[in-house]
């Protein structure tokens, strides 16, 4: 694994980060259910992720590689609600807004509400051509170092079994049943990391 320069994203990069995430997540099984019309993915998902990235830029942490090949989006819990989220979701997702709401509800139900303050790794994305080179690991470790110094745990939803294995190597364990959503393919796994958990 080679060292990668990582920095904080800026407000002006909101759209670029959202498009990076949408490109990285293009083939996720859950995305095929969220927007069945694949020809609309390049329109819907960058705009959807921009809502989350913008919120994290204001209230959390968005870290990117200098070449914009990878990004990590962390949101502290608790944090403010996203303003006008339902209206923005309807504008961006159109006929599939109800599926996105159901997705949000499933994530909310799985998210542990009784474990105190923590950071939520809402999104970790690496462009397909750069995956498997340890870039995601560098992003994770950088923020974990900060969390461990603060004695702060972390939470995430692994998007499939491969990312579940990756996160397990970084001290995460399953903390709830996989998200209950009506699609075929890889499930999403809620996972928790106590502060200071050793990487495997």
Automatic annotation (TrEMBL):
<dbReference type="InterPro" id="IPR052523">
    <property type="entry name" value="Trichothecene_AcTrans"/>
</dbReference>
<dbReference type="InterPro" id="IPR000182">
    <property type="entry name" value="GNAT_dom"/>
</dbReference>
<protein>
    <submittedName>
        <fullName>GNAT family N-acetyltransferase</fullName>
    </submittedName>
</protein>
<feature type="domain" description="N-acetyltransferase">
    <location>
        <begin position="51"/>
        <end position="196"/>
    </location>
</feature>
<dbReference type="InterPro" id="IPR016181">
    <property type="entry name" value="Acyl_CoA_acyltransferase"/>
</dbReference>
<dbReference type="Pfam" id="PF13508">
    <property type="entry name" value="Acetyltransf_7"/>
</dbReference>
